[in-house]
Amino acid sequence: MRTNCREAKKTVVAPLMQIPARLSFGLVCGLLWWTAAARAQSGLVDLFNPLEPIVFFPPPPPVFGAKIENTPPGQARFYQGRRVLAPDGMADFVSDGFYPALSTRLYAPELSRALEARVRSYHAKRLLQVSALLDQFVTPSDAPDDTRERELLAFAATQTPQLVALEIEAEQLREALVTDGLRNDVNWNGQRRWKLDAGQGRNDWAEVEGEFQVVRATAFYQPGLTSQQRGLVRELAMELQAIARKARGQPSARTESDAMFFSPETSRFRLPPNLSPALRERIGVYNSQKSALKRELRELITAQDRAEARERNAAFVALADRQWPHLGILERLADDIRVELAGRFTSGPPAAPPWIPTQLMDAIRSYNDDRDVYFGELRFQTDYAAARVPPPAFSATPDERVQQQRAHMVRQAEARRQATLDFQQEHAARFAALELRYKAIRLGLTTVAEKQTDRKTGRPMDADTLLRQHAISMEEFNTFGRESVIYTHYRMAMFQRGLSPEQRRLLFGYALAGLAQPLPYGELMPRKAATKPYPSF
Questions:
Q1: Where are the alpha helices (H) located in 273-357, listed in sequence order?
Q2: Predicted confidence (pLDDT) per residue in 327-370, tens digit
């Protein structure tokens, strides 16, 4: 986390001060150019031609039990010859409101010594509070739920005031990181020229993308929000991102329509089957009230986007005062729901999958491996063909750059199509052999399936239902394993009775850091010259 600015002064400026006065001006300029070029090649910031500010946003929290991907979403990004990867150490702060501001200063790098000390101190205090909370769960597992809940309530009365102070410190640190430093301001809104239009339709992709970006930035840069409100705004941004992807023609992420946001904010889970009508009604009331609060926040964000900073900040403070009682009611509704839901997420492993002979399973695995190799080579050829399409010029204006990017995407699509045709013609015999193996496996599965019945319907299975039931059962086993191991603290944050909202946020943040999600690539901050938002993904 140590800034490189002082080292840059030692390696660039200090040696130049030692150059004799008689040394020619041309040689001095040559040394300056060589040093700047060398630093650019090494991946450091060019002190004589500073980069545009880059910002990184934390990954959206996954749905409870979901598989964790290995790579960040989207394609790797480069800017000024440098890969735009999140700075080291950012994974520890994925749940903090100052994540984007800290990432900008670390990437530059221009984090002052004083701010670095404050970040380290905050991180150490938070870890101490997490350890103290986790110590409360080191009790016999067979202790009655009522006993454990009473003990946790007693501890919450002691720890919660400390966590309130810690959240206030985090908010002060967020404000300091936004306004302090060599550039003195890394506010996402500081240079933004384009604004949202409350009266304009949202059919244009730029308007939809712009609203998503403004809402997302509000969660991390807008003063006057409470911790709960920042979480609700992040939930709103996650919902708007899916809409923005669709507007830009981007492929949708894995469907999450069956997952609901819960408490603490941004946590999500899928409703288990066979819920009682009374519980479904409570969940409906909870979701309705949360949606109303998010709707108020969304309307205020849009209405105040063109206002002066002082007026906008006052409006958010006023809304926080109005929503505060309703946020308390929402948390009490969540407590009622978790009382009935807690036992649904601590059950034993699922039933065993339907039987498939070992020899046939080996044939399926071998076929899948060879099929994946085939399509992997095809994907490599299409990606290579698309990469050879000349990129648009960097010297264009932002509007021209958007048009050139669209044309570039069309040329890339045509290159991929032609590469696919060429690959299929070259490997026609190989594909035919894979098809024969597929048919043989299907025949074997049909024979095995006829001797078994579907556990749910009691009817004889065919090859499709056998494979589907087997895949579902295996995914249930995998999900059970993930929920039992890496999602333990995530589950506790949502469903453990006796915790305060502050404790839930603390534990949930610790759980997110433990999931080790890949950190998204960086983005350019809005600039004065831009009349439309830069694409964010």
A1: 277-303, 309-341
A2: 999 999 999 999 888 767 655 555 566 667 888 778 888 888 89
Which amino acid appears at position 444 of this protein? G
Query: Of the ranges 25-34, 262-271, 389-398, 526-535, which is most confident?
Result: 262-271
Instruction: Please give the distance of CA 199 from its chain centroid, rounded to a whole number.
Output: 30
The answer to whether the CB of 399 falls within 8 A of the CB of 532 is yes
Q: How far apart are CA 280 and CA 270, in angstroms?
A: 13
Q: Which residue has the tokens 């991180």?
A: 123
Reduce the DSSP state of residue 20 to 3 states and report it: coil
**d(Cα 154, Cα 301) in Å, to the nearest integer?**
39
CA distance 492 to 114: 35
In 108-194, where does DSSP find H-type helix?
113-135, 145-179
Rounded Cα–Cα distance for residues 328 and 113 (Å)? 39
Q: Radius of gyration of the chain from Cα atoms?
A: 27
Residue boundaries of the structural domains of the chain: 5-50, 55-345+486-514, 358-451
What is the separation of C-alpha 33 from the centre of its chain, rounded to a whole number of angstroms?
Answer: 39
Contact 522, 84 (CB under 8 A): yes
- The owner of tokens 């005031």 is 161
Token pair listed for 502? 């502050």
3-class secondary structure for 370-406?
HHHHHHHHHHHHHHHHHHCCCCCCCCCCHHHHHHHHH
* Residues present in the chain in total: 537
Whether the CB-CB separation of 95 and 58 falls below 8 Å is answered with yes
Region 239-253: what's the mean pLDDT?
Answer: 78
Q: What is the pTM (predicted TM-score) of this model?
A: 0.69
112-124 burial, b at 16+ Cβ within 10 Å, e below that, comes to beebbebbeebee
